[in-house]
UniProtKB/TrEMBL annotation:
<dbReference type="InterPro" id="IPR029028">
    <property type="entry name" value="Alpha/beta_knot_MTases"/>
</dbReference>
<keyword id="KW-0949">S-adenosyl-L-methionine</keyword>
<comment type="similarity">
    <text>Belongs to the RNA methyltransferase TrmD family.</text>
</comment>
<keyword id="KW-0963">Cytoplasm</keyword>
<dbReference type="InterPro" id="IPR023148">
    <property type="entry name" value="tRNA_m1G_MeTrfase_C_sf"/>
</dbReference>
<feature type="domain" description="tRNA methyltransferase TRMD/TRM10-type">
    <location>
        <begin position="1"/>
        <end position="245"/>
    </location>
</feature>
<dbReference type="GO" id="GO:0032259">
    <property type="term" value="P:methylation"/>
</dbReference>
<dbReference type="Pfam" id="PF01746">
    <property type="entry name" value="tRNA_m1G_MT"/>
</dbReference>
<feature type="binding site">
    <location>
        <position position="130"/>
    </location>
    <ligand>
        <name>S-adenosyl-L-methionine</name>
    </ligand>
</feature>
<protein>
    <recommendedName>
        <fullName>tRNA (guanine-N(1)-)-methyltransferase</fullName>
        <ecNumber>2.1.1.228</ecNumber>
    </recommendedName>
</protein>
<comment type="subunit">
    <text>Homodimer.</text>
</comment>
<feature type="binding site">
    <location>
        <begin position="154"/>
        <end position="159"/>
    </location>
    <ligand>
        <name>S-adenosyl-L-methionine</name>
    </ligand>
</feature>
<dbReference type="InterPro" id="IPR016009">
    <property type="entry name" value="tRNA_MeTrfase_TRMD/TRM10"/>
</dbReference>
<dbReference type="InterPro" id="IPR029026">
    <property type="entry name" value="tRNA_m1G_MTases_N"/>
</dbReference>
<keyword id="KW-0808">Transferase</keyword>
<comment type="function">
    <text>Specifically methylates guanosine-37 in various tRNAs.</text>
</comment>
<keyword id="KW-0489">Methyltransferase</keyword>
Length: 249
């Protein structure tokens, strides 16, 4: 999978050199490229934001640097294709082969494990990290005409910019790419994979600071262990996240 990130803070993403995603990059499973939005400005001050039309607090990111930065990536991904320009392009329709543009935004669709699984099927993801009060709406409207654009939110809280959200999404998506996680079985027993939270885990020693490991886990009875874990998943989900339980329960 090729992943392009556009940001005014490229140094944020140096952490993607380490851990699982770092290994996946070294082995070639993930081709990750970080682009500085300011490289696509043409004024002396490399400005990427301006005051909002209609007034209001804060600044809005200007459309031109975004347009140029995204055009450059689209051209690099598909060298034959012209950058999208409605006036010269023949009628085209977005296909699954076209890169998916993702903008982290508290106004977007909620990012879930199901969405992570969908994104892991893509061959090209482009993440655009907004800052300030957001990006000029015409950037989304323009690239939606000939391509695929998604606004995605991590949850109901506000981050200063999309960078941390993009890192979370890349970690969630990256580990679902075949070969990135060494033992694929470890993927299926995680929280959210079966719609429930995961069961509590224990390792040696069997007793620690007066707390004993539940005896069923020491019993050697695999059926009893599986039943206990399933029950724990339901109990924990009912207690912490009742919204995840199917309506029948
Ligand atoms: Cl994806 N971006 C920003 N800027 N804030 C957020 C978010 C994303 N998800 C929750 N808050």
């Amino acid at each position: 999978m090729r992943i392009d990130i556009i940001t005014i803070f490229p140094e944020f993403f140096s952490v993607l050199d380490v851990s699982l995603v770092g290994k996946a990059r070294q082995s070639g499973l993930i081709d990750l490229r970080v682009h500085n939005l300011r490289d696509h400005t043409h004024d002396r001050h490399h400005s990427v934001d301006d005051t909002p039309y209609g007034g209001g607090a804060g600044m809005v990111m200007k459309p031109e640097p975004w347009g140029d930065a995204i055009d450059a990536i689209l051209t690099d991904v598909h060298p034959g294709a012209e950058p999208p320009d409605a006036s010269v392009m023949p009628e085209t329709t977005a296909t699954d082969a076209s890169p998916l543009l993702i903008f982290p935004s508290p106004a977007g669709d909620l990012f879930t494990q199901a969405m992570a699984r969908e994104l892991a099927e893509e061959s090209n993801l482009i993440f655009g990290c907004g800052r300030y009060e957001g990006i000029d709406q015409r950037v989304f409207d323009h690239f939606e005409k000939d391509g695929r654009v998604r606004l995605v939110s991590l949850g109901d809280y506000v981050l200063n910019g999309g960078e941390v959200a993009v890192m979370a999404m890349i970690e969630a998506v990256g580990r679902l790419i075949p070969g990135v996680v060494g033992n694929p079985e470890s993927l299926v027993e995680e929280s959210h994979e079966d719609g429930l939270l995961e069961y509590p885990s224990y390792t040696k020693p069997a007793a620690w600071r007066g707390l004993d490991v539940p005896s069923v886990l020491l019993s050697g009875n695999h059926g009893a262990v599986a039943a206990w874990r399933r029950e724990q998943q339901f109990l924990r989900t009912a207690r912490v996240r009742p919204d995840l339980l199917p309506p029948a329960n």
